[in-house]
Amino acid sequence: MLEISRNEIKSRLGFDNPWWQEGVTVERRFREMPRRSYFEPFFRLATDRTINRAVVLMGPRRVGKTVMVFQAIQKLIETGIPGTSILYLSLETPIYTGLSLEQILHLFQEHNDHQRDDYLLIWFDEIQYLKNWEVHLKSLVDSYPHYKFIATGSAAAALRLKSQESGAGRFSDFLLPPLTFAEYINFIGLDDEFAIDQDQHYQAKDIEQINLEFVNYLNYGGYPEAVFSETVQSDSSRYIRSDIIDKVLLRDLPSLYGIGDIQELNRLFNTIAYNTGNEVTLENLSKSSGVAKNTLKRYIEYLEAAFLIQRVHRIDENAQHFKRATSFKVYLTNPAMRSALFGYTAADSPAMGALTETAMFSQWLHSSDVNHLHYARWKEGEVDMICLESFSQKPLWCLEVKWSDRVVANHAEINGLLKFLTIHGSQMQQEPIVTTKTIRHHFPVQGFPIKFVPSAELVYTIGKKNLSSIFLTS
After folding, report:
1. Which of 101, 183, 271, 406 is the most exposed place for a label (fewest CB within 10 A)?
2. Longest dimension (CA), the chain
3. How many Cβ atoms are within 10 Å of 41's Cβ, its own excluded?
4. Sign of the CA dihedral 243, 464, 409, 205?
5. Do 65 and 182 meet the contact criterion of CB atoms below 8 Å apart?
6. What was the pLDDT predicted at 157?
7. Among the listed ranges 1-5, 337-341, 426-430, which one has the minimum average pLDDT value?
8. 200, 286, 360 from 437: Cα distances, Å
9. Cα–Cα distance for residue pair 126/57, rounded to 1 Å
């Protein structure tokens, strides 16, 4: 039986790393794509030589991880790092199958005559396809302290779990979420259409125009490539479903977790996607998808690991957790996946409320606050989003999401919020917010100061503030 030779592997490494040739840089298509707002904090982390740690860049498919890697390589070359000191390889490439990371590294060292104390930057793309990757990567970090190792992967939760278990003190995680609304607005050149107010909230100069773009964002805007491609926008179902959702459901998850019944997993995901932003129970999900409860629990964990969904847990009117959690909310990490599966969502669609809430939630995905987000539901009412303080578990702020201006005059629609405020309003750090479609207002309701804010403005503000905090803390 024929085996792949060392020369063939070296030849492929040269193909994947054209910057090893003098005067050659990263492909123009990567250089010309606009950088995500996460690029600078990621680049600083990826090139930090003060600590001996590998960087693990995590996130779902098609959010720009590989593009950001190539843009980082381009910046390294521009700052004077020799191209021959940079190794990039994708572990999805068949020729590398069966090779350990150290074997590939040795070929790189041999090809470019590198020594153990040289400063090299090693980029492993889609590392989750290597079995026990975390053990291999930790060994390299320990063995080659002068080298900087950066890995990317699409099974974010699984990667994070393994990096925390096996790479404690050796890995630094960096999460790249789907495109935020603030990034989308920046990409299409409409940042000047927002002005910041005295409360550090962003206000749209023309809310009707921004709402049109918000609807576009919900339908395809979470994917950077889709923002610039009319082909993708006109057929987002084909692009997003076949190239992102189906690859994860039909290939990634079965190969990572040994799933036998792919159609069963697919039915469950369709059910969850249709109900994004709504409360579900294991019982109802089992009935709707036809998946047994025990299997269902595993599948939900897998879908979270692939960064397709995220669960949010329920509290009661006293902000207490339930000892037996039988229900929870589920959100797509990118609202555009729902439109890809079930068709374009128009501004007047009944699904807009749930999709707006999904978009609101997704802006927190990179923030540590996402772990403290909950919703409240009890016999007499509910509140869409509540952030609990990590130590005391007391509510810091609460939010009710609406895609309608009717709520400004009809306060019966926020009875649950008002009842929650009678218990917790005095201890909250921020004024409660109710979102609308176009109206911006601020007045007391039953003695509680309520901020009414257009949904698109708040989604933009959340994304903008979370990005700013990353720049400050990274």
Report:
1. 406
2. 80
3. 17
4. negative
5. no
6. 42
7. 1-5
8. 20, 34, 14
9. 10
Token couple for 91:
């572990």
Would you give the end-to-end CA distance of the chain in angstroms? 51
AA letter at 401: V
